Task: inverse folding
């Protein structure tokens, strides 16, 4: 898994993640962050099987997980959207997650 972009000669399959947005908000005296992160899995196999397997592993790992982030409490990690497409013989499975975290007091 690579942050934003994989190196040019990366072998398939691989995944990248992007920070789509991060919005701070305050509830009384608590500082919270609401973040959307996107994972994209790429594979050049003619079958969708590899992408489907990796998608299953990713969702098993991240659906409703409790994140361990320094100085924050994890509230939730919720899958929001998912899409599968094939472009130029490359399968792409995209998954967006909404993350809510609260700064430790």
Result:
């Amino acid at each position: 898994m690579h942050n934003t972009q994989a190196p040019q000669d990366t072998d398939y399959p691989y995944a990248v993640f992007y920070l789509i947005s991060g919005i701070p908000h305050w509830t009384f005296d608590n500082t919270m962050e609401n973040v959307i992160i996107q994972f994209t899995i790429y594979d050049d196999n003619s079958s969708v099987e590899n992408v489907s397997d990796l998608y299953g592993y990713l969702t098993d790992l991240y659906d409703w997980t409790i994140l361990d982030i320094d100085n924050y409490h994890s509230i939730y990690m919720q899958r929001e959207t998912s899409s599968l497409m094939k472009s130029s013989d490359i399968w792409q499975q995209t998954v967006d997650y909404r993350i809510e975290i609260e700064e430790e007091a």
Remarks:
- The radius of gyration is 16 Å.
